[in-house]
Write a structure and sequence with these properties.
The chain has about 525 residues and is mostly beta strands. It folds into three domains: about 90 residues, no CATH class; about 110 residues, Immunoglobulins (Immunoglobulin-like), CATH 2.60.40; about 240 residues, Beta-galactosidase, Chain A, domain 5 (Distorted Sandwich), CATH 2.70.98.10. The protein is built from seven helices and 30 strands. Strands 18, 19, 20, 21, 22, 23, 24, 25, 26, 27, 28 and 29 form a twelve-stranded antiparallel sheet that branches. The protein has a five-stranded antiparallel sheet with strand order 13-14-15-16-17, with no helix packed on it. A hairpin with a 5-residue loop joins strand 20 and strand 21. The protein starts with a strand and ends with a strand.
């Protein structure tokens, strides 16, 4: 059996492709399928300001002309054949060499040749062990006669690792060829795999008795927490952190607030997500403080806990939320969030997270987590854990019909800094997901589904020219968001295991101001208890 149009690539999609292939490879009678579609079918246009952008069907014709709107913008590549992030997932899932851990303690790996006619002895097999972005061991394995459909176990000569405190270790493997093969250039990497090794350094615990003394002061409904080189201000009426000043510089433009929404993808509009889950769109902004509790259990530690009601658009309570800010004399702030829905009758949340805004100058991004390309809970097979550097501007994925984009999962820590090396460190407890963009959610919204005939298409259709970078860095620090899906864009829901279906969620992360001289790797490993 071969499936036509079995995986859908429209917009931010191509999710759960690995799940498809787990099934296809399990049953020999399943041959595979064709992805809908290869290329975004759009035309290049220039507006009156000289800005170029891709158009789609709904942009053409007189009023009343039938059109499927942006529906043919459904490819793995843009019209100029530039790859979407989803194509990296296809490339990884489709690779013809399989890897299976047998015993990672000893370095025993099983490899399968999935080719029909190619002997793997023609390839080069390289491996390395990486920690915090640095290669600590590496080697090459000579390949024997390795015929199609054969599995062979290899014992990699891993040396015993004496783990550095707080460090993780990953085994990365690659198959490449030294020759040009079927138009593919020499040294191309044909298959990769990554496994986390069962060795980890002990946690690095910061002793609180070494922390600087903090002082608190309440003026009207403002709580000030001051220490060496720092001052933090809370609005007790709203339960928001409104100012974070470090060494005379403000490191936030807008303090973190609960965020339960994500801009709808084409797949989301296909099952009316914007209507079914729309109650959560502005729910984080609507939260109402019901209780505030401030304490100072130690000289170098202040705890501020806020309890909130979450009302719907009419003011009716649909859930509860609590945020605990623990401020340390070291200028660290640990944020713990707890969410609960009132009942299972209330729709699921698209996202469990917090959103904050930072100064525009914090444009340099570094993170330890999955990357380097955009990845989601159901589209991350191709995104290895590593240490990556980029810019906030380069996080934006310019989908032709603007939508959710730029996400990263399973992040250990990230930094956002200016050109002088000053900024913030955000670390998970243990993992977070994040997006750092020069835009807010509303910039990626459309006035409803566009992939159909609309009489108001000429005014309703959205394009990349509608997305203008703002003078800020919009940072989401999340437990996670639901997957992007990949079955179709006309009704299929995201697979249940990739949705936030529970009534309660809880997670924590830490924010710390940093300067150029700081040892980020050392700071990121610290745990404050």
């Amino acid at each position: 059996m071969i499936m036509c149009e079995y995986a859908h690539a429209m917009g931010n999609s191509t999710g759960n492709l690995q799940d498809y292939w787990d099934v296809i490879e399990k049953y020999p009678k399943l041959q595979g399928g064709f992805i809908w579609d290869w290329v975004d079918q759009g035309f290049l246009k220039t507006n009156e300001n000289g800005e170029k952008y891709w158009t789609y069907g709904g942009d053409y014709g007189e009023e009343g002309i039938p059109s499927d709107g942006n529906f043919n913008i459904n490819g793995l590549v843009w019209p100029d054949r530039t790859p979407h992030p989803g194509l990296f997932e296809v490339n990884k899932v489709y690779q013809y060499i399989g890897f299976e851990p047998v015993d990672l303690k000893t370095g025993m790996i099983k490899i399968k040749n999935k080719y029909d006619f190619t002997n793997l002895s023609e390839f080069n097999f390289d491996w390395d062990v990486v920690s915090d972005g640095k290669v600590v061991q590496s080697g090459k394995i000579p390949l024997p006669d390795f015929r199609p459909k054969v599995e062979i176990a290899f014992l990699l000569p891993l040396k015993k690792i004496d783990p550095i405190p707080g460090a993780e270790y990953f085994l990365n493997m690659r198959f490449s060829r030294s020759d040009e093969w079927n138009y593919v250039p020499e040294d191309h990497v044909y298959a990769t795999a990554q496994f986390k090794l069962p060795v980890e350094g002990k946690p690095v615990i910061t002793k609180e008795d070494k922390l600087a003394v903090l002082q608190t002061k309440t003026i009207d409904k403002k709580l000030e927490v001051s220490g060496v080189d720092m001052k933090i201000i809370f609005d007790l009426g709203t339960g928001r952190l409104t100012s974070f000043n470090y060494k005379g510089k403000e490191i936030i433009k807008k303090g973190p607030e609960p965020d339960f929404w994500r801009p709808p993808t084409d797949n989301d509009y296909g099952y009316d997500m914007d209507k079914l889950l729309g109650v959560w769109k502005k729910a984080g902004e609507r939260t109402v403080v019901t209780k505030a509790n401030i304490s100072q259990p130690e000289l170098g530690k202040v705890v501020a806990t806020f309890n909130y009601d979450i009302p719907d658009e009419s003011g009716k309570k649909i859930g509860g939320y609590a945020t605990t800010f623990t401020i340390y004399g070291s200028a660290d702030v640990v944020i713990k969030n707890q969410f609960s829905k009132l009942s299972d009758n209330i729709p699921e949340i698209p996202r469990m997270g917090m959103q904050m805004q930072l100064p525009e100058e914090f444009t340099n991004l570094k993170w330890l987590g999955r990357g380097p390309h955009e990845n989601y809970v159901d589209r991350k097979t191709s995104a290895d854990v590593g240490l990556y550097e980029s810019t906030v501007a380069d996080q934006y994925t310019p989908y032709i019909r603007p939508q959710e984009n730029g996400y990263k999962t399973e992040t250990r820590w990230l930094t956002l800094t200016n050109d002088n090396g000053s900024g913030i460190l955000v670390s998970g407890d243990p993992l977070i997901c994040f997006a750092a963009l020069n835009n807010i959610h509303d910039d990626f919204e459309s006035p409803g589904k566009l992939s159909q005939y609309r009489k108001d298409a000429k005014t309703a259709n959205t394009h990349t020219i509608d997305v203008k970078p703002r003078d800020l860095v919009n940072l989401n620090v999340d437990l996670g968001q639901m997957g992007v899906g990949g079955d179709n864009s006309w009704g299929a829901l995201i697979h249940p295991k990739y949705r936030l279906l529970d009534k309660k969620y809880e997670y924590s992360f830490r924010i710390k101001p940093i300067v150029k001289e700081d040892d980020i790797l050392k700071l990121a490993k610290e745990i404050l208890k």
